[in-house]
Amino acid sequence: MSLRPVEAVLLGAGSRGYSTFGGYAKAYPHNLKIIAVAEPDPARRERFAREHALPSAQVFTSWEELLDRPRLAEVLINATMDRVHYESTLRALDLGYHVLLEKPMATDPAACICLARKVEQTGLILQLCHSLRYNPFFIRLKELMDAPETGQVTSIIHNENVAFWHYAHSFVRGNWSNESRSAPGLLTKSCHDVDILYWLTGRVPEWVSSFGRLTHFRPDRAGAEIPARCTDGCPVEATCPYSAIRIYLGDHVDWPVNTIANDLSYEGRWQALREGPYGRCVFRCDNDVVDHQFTTFDYADGLIIGFHMHGHSHDNVRTLRVAKTGATIRGFLEKRELEVNHYLDGRQEIIHTGGPDDRHGGGDTLMLHEFIRLVRQGRPDEVNASARESCLSHLLVFAAEQARKENRIVHVPTFIHEIEQSVPADGIHE
Ligand SMILES: NC(=O)c1ccc[n+]([C@@H]2O[C@H](COP(=O)([O-])OP(=O)(O)OC[C@H]3O[C@@H](n4cnc5c(N)ncnc54)[C@H](O)[C@@H]3O)[C@@H](O)[C@H]2O)c1
């Protein structure tokens, strides 16, 4: 029996909206059909409407305009920027949409709690785009961690190594560089990692500590002779790894180059560097988020987890080391490879976890397949990255940020309890 595609409206036809969700609808037209879009940028809006054959009545200039109408489809995909997520999702749930929501869920803890409560009241499906939960690599790793024959997990060290050019693009020059416009780096870059650690362990830690600094991308790192933009005749441009000219004006025009301008010709990109945020010297931006951070979670039963995120890597790789009492597990996400070293007989198992080929190791595609299944079968109770689960993992991030900013350790259950108590039953009052 062939099923009709699930119909959805899309908020935000930017990088994720266009490529990930628009791309999925094109690759799997029997699963998803996007029937309306809201996007303020005219070029992005028109490109999306054209490629998805949307009639003009289904094309909107903002999420507010689209959500002023009665519900247009069963599903809403929210790919707007971080600070828009809360209000737009709340409105969507009021209108009865099932929601696929980009991370972060919201940029403050009370808003996360309100969304989780709202989802529970409505009985609708809300799935966060925590794609790692749907990635075969982490599903297999969880099985290995839970396997009783290799003993108990005593500690985990997880590294999120972000390539220098990626960090400079997103967290120095771009969308997630300034807390007041987005949120702390642990939320915007690493809520996936904190969430997957929470999912792998299945429990909340007792204590958290966190140290993070902005050490490199600061005005005091550049001499007075360095101009505001790489295109202003910078004397060290040719020897600077962060040169916007090197990063954005080469032959490569895929991500992240395709986010700097709608016109990706050489001239279009040059103009974007002359006028937009991505041509700025990395030492002359208005960034204030950390460029490296260590967070430690301490559990009541003895487990300790160390999580390291930094933007000074030659490549983008996540690596893990899980110490069990009977084996050491090492994981290399980008290679989709897990290695189990058994103490008893010295045996080494190498496991290739596979999965579809997308920017998130297959996680995005599988996450979308699962969301479509849940909507078709009407199963809010089966959502893995559910609003409640994601709210909890976001609260771990907020607790860690409190520890970092106040230079102390934070008792996680108390932090969660106090936040829950502080949010009125009828929601946040602005
Ligand atoms: N799950 C993941 O792995 C992952 C990866 C990257 C980004 N993200 C998240 O996805 C979201 C989008 O990121 P992006 O890289 O696509 O950013 P983006 O800036 O490319 O896209 C956001 C789009 O929202 C549009 N927008 C702004 N105001 C709007 C309004 N009022 N109504 C409708 N649209 C509006 C913008 O014009 C833009 O096109 C962010 O929250 C980000 O954190 C998630």
Describe this protein's structure.
The chain is an alpha/beta fold. Among the domains are: 6-131 and 363-385, Rossmann fold; 219-279, no CATH class. It is 35% helix and 20% strand. The protein contains 14 helices and 15 strands. The strands form two sheets. The protein has a nine-stranded mixed beta sheet with strand order 14-13-12-11-7-10-9-8-15. The protein has a six-stranded parallel beta sheet with strand order 3-2-1-4-5-6, sandwiched between helices. Helix 5 (109-122) runs antiparallel to helix 13. The longest helix is centred in the C-terminal third of the chain and has 20 residues, at 387-406. The model has no long low-confidence stretch (mean pLDDT 96). The protein binds nicotinamide-adenine-dinucleotide (NAD). Nicotinamide-adenine-dinucleotide binds next to helix 1.
Summarize the model shown.
The protein has 430 residues and is an alpha/beta fold.
Present as ligands are: nicotinamide-adenine-dinucleotide
Tell me the CATH topology of one domain.
Rossmann fold
Give the name of the CATH architecture of one domain.
Answer: 3-Layer(aba) Sandwich
How many whole angstroms does the radius of gyration measure? 22 Å
How many H/I helices?
14
Largest sheet, described in full? 9 strands, mixed
**Helix amount, in percent?**
25-40%
Write down the overall geometry. globular
* Spatial separation of the terminal alpha carbons: 49 Å
- DSSP, total strands: 15
Q: Under the CATH scheme, which class of one domain?
A: Alpha Beta
Oligomer: single chain
